[in-house]
Amino acid sequence: MQMDRKRRWVAAAGTAGAVLLVVSGCAQSERGSGGDNGATLNFGQASAPKLFDPFYATDGETFRITEQMFDNLVEFKTGGSEVRPGLATDWQPSDGGKTWSFNLRKNVKFTDGTAMDATAVCKNFERMYNQKGAGTSNAVSQYWNDNFGGFADKKQPSLYAGCEVKSPTRMALKLTKASSKMPDILGLASWAIQSPTAMDKYHANDVKAEGDSFTYPDYATKHPTGTGPFKFSKYDQANGTVELVRNDNYWGEKPKLAKIVFKIYKDTAGTRQALQAGEIDGYDLPQPQDYQSLRDQGNKLLEREPFNIMYLGIDQKNNPKLRDLKVRQAIAYAINRPQLVKSQFPDKAVVAKEMLPPSIAGFNPNVPEYNYDPNKAKQLLKEAGAEGLTVNFYWPSEVTRPYLPSPRDQFTAMKGDLEKAGIKVVEKSEPWNGGYLDDVEGHKPDLFLMGWNGDFNNADNFFSQFFNTPTNRFYAAASPWGASLSERVKQLDATADKAAREQGYKELNGQIQKDYLPAVPIVSAPSYIAVKDNIKGLVPSPLSNEKFELVTKSGS
């Protein structure tokens, strides 16, 4: 996240009763003039970016790059999850939370010279809403599907009702109903404000389906255009590098770095060795077993607070036996979660009780738990007539996530646990952005490793991702409770009373663990960024959305 600005502000609440957010002073003067040490930051990536259009992105490795190039209407406080001004200086809800009016910063331009004004902002939202064909697929526009719902084709209801230009510096976002996610959701990377000129010129919405995969237009791969502190330079796929250069016309405090080069490594060992060899200045998600050696070599480990959940997903589409609650409970009893967390995660990691981390409002500390008990697992399988159960278990390669530091190791441990309970495992591994995510969204695995790092402090940010139809990745529609679970999630999101909403989430958490169990929650874990000692100004974020504009590199 960007460093705190010298301004006084009052955070707007994420409910219909929010008050006007007030900002004092001028954006440019508050941001300062910045500086230039002419340095290049070389940062290690665990996998290749999916593309550079954040609206179509879904993964942290892609968002880390796009967040350096784009700004949002709102953003999050440095090192925290509280919302604050971005391209909008203040905002006000009305009409029971169904209309949100934003005042915009003046004299801000996209890097192609286009003015960032109310017309440009509304064109962004209309672009999102007017996806067609392949663009409406959950595999392409997942964040919109999960959070706003349908598109202009009216096949599904949408939270979006329109965008109105009131003046060059004032616009209103209209919703079909109130949502607990507003305005925080507008700080997510997917809702970055992009140049309408560049999107039109390079046909941003021209997504095409090719079998089970998709192809994206030149805008998404070669011409991303934002208002952010850095701008796109080039992507050398052969050498696995993405280069960004400083935006000298940035509206805020100018970046200290002249350039950022993201270097892609396909395994954590290679990334660690690159840091040791001086090829890179830092990388995300070092392995727990490497912490001490990295420190001993003079590096710093920047800690993020736990704000995530890793789970063992149980997809009910292809294996009818998995639709039996007793079978899903058997899988939960079979996994030795305490041992897994102790042996493979940082000291501050905790065994997950439910599909929310403890820091999110709505967490219920008293949900039913499934303690490690392989004999209980065998008994439940026998009662369900599922002895000798065989499952296709997928795990991702070429990736590390805050909740999944070493997928192969986490998979191996769980595979062993399942086999001890008499469950046969058929293994399949695919690259994270090379088939794995597509296959999980396409409901091909029976079991899969996945998780969610919170985008902001809101239970719906987790539950809409997990349980809303038609995007429910556990294929709960195969169960009689699937539709009611999705509907309850939507009802809670639209509940304006904060206390009632949080109590509703607590009750739903208990019901999910007791009666539904679509997945086995595994761990909520802190994560770290490893950097050389000469790297200053990088503040770790629990949302994993660090921005690099105020980073400095000495000795360059």
Descriptive key words:
556 residues; alpha+beta; D-Maltodextrin-Binding Protein, domain 2; Dipeptide-binding Protein, domain 3; 2 domains; seven-stranded mixed sheet; six-stranded mixed sheet; 16 helices; 23 strands; 27% helix; globular; disordered N terminus
Can you walk me through this structure?
The chain has 556 residues and is an alpha+beta fold. It has two domains: 27-261 and 529-553, 3-Layer(aba) Sandwich (D-Maltodextrin-Binding Protein, domain 2), CATH 3.40.190.10; 308-524, Roll (Dipeptide-binding Protein, domain 3). It has helices at 27-31, 60-66, 118-129, 142-147, 196-201, 218-222, 268-276, 291-296, 325-334, 337-344, 374-383, 407-420, 432-441, 459-467, 482-493, 498-516, and strands at 40-45, 74-76, 83-85, 88-94, 99-104, 160-167, 170-175, 208-210, 213-215, 230-236, 241-246, 259-264, 282-284, 300-304, 308-314, 350-351, 390-397, 424-431, 447-453, 519-524, 527-531, 535-536, 552-553. Strands 10-11-12-1-13-21-14 form a seven-stranded mixed beta sheet. A hairpin with a 4-residue loop joins strand 10 (230-236) and strand 11 (241-246). Helix 15 (482-493) packs antiparallel against helix 16. It is globular.
Mean pLDDT reading: 90
Q: What is the CATH class designation of the largest domain?
A: Alpha Beta
Cα end-to-end separation? 24 Å
- Spatial sequence of strands, sheet with the most strands: 10-11-12-1-13-21-14
Radius of gyration: 23 Å
Structural class, please?
alpha+beta
Number of domains: 2
Strand content: 15-25%
Major beta sheet summary = 7 strands, mixed
The CATH superfamily of the largest domain is known as: Periplasmic binding protein-like II
Question: Globular, elongated, flat, extended or rod-shaped: what is the shape?
Answer: globular
